[in-house]
Amino acid sequence: MRTRVKICGITRVEDVQSVVQSGADAIGLVFYPPSPRHVSIEQAQVLVQKIPAYVQVIGLFVNATADEIVQVLKDVPLDMLQFHGDETPEDCQAIAAQVGRRWYKAIQVKPELDVVAEVQCYQQAGASAVLLDAWHPELKGGTGHSFDWSQFPKLDIPLILAGGLTPVNVEDAIKTTGAYAVDVSGGVESAKGIKDQQLIDNFMQGVHRGSAK
What we know:
213 residues, 7 helices, TIM Barrel, eight-stranded parallel β-barrel, globular, alpha/beta
């Protein structure tokens, strides 16, 4: 099975079209105002109208309340939630129950973190997957940095690899980690929030090579 691909931080209609044409599985919309890839509800509505069936729409939230997420969901039909802040397993479980969406949690791989134990806590709370991202003391994702892929565990829950992925390294990343999916943002951009069609295509080619047995 080919490794699944989410391209995150989409801000323009033409980038939706590039992602869809590339064959990626999911599009990520960032609902976190400090991010340079943040979209308003109005922007998201326009973008979602251009996303066809069988391409999932993932909403990325950082320490948002259930009420804030409900406000987004009233106008933007998200398929799944990505919690990318300091949400505990209990927070994620409670919010998901209130808003009626499947979810997964992004975990920053800090040097001292027991990754397996952390993943299992979110798995027990009902996560559909767990995303492992590079740690940064201030930024919540989109760091452009990677972590030591040899730390990537093998567990009975889909694991998503993020952090510093590019068309150049994604093949090796997949072969090293065996990740269920990869999540890229800055690695396929010409500027923050501006995706590049050629980089997306090159990234997808790397994914296909990495997924080949």
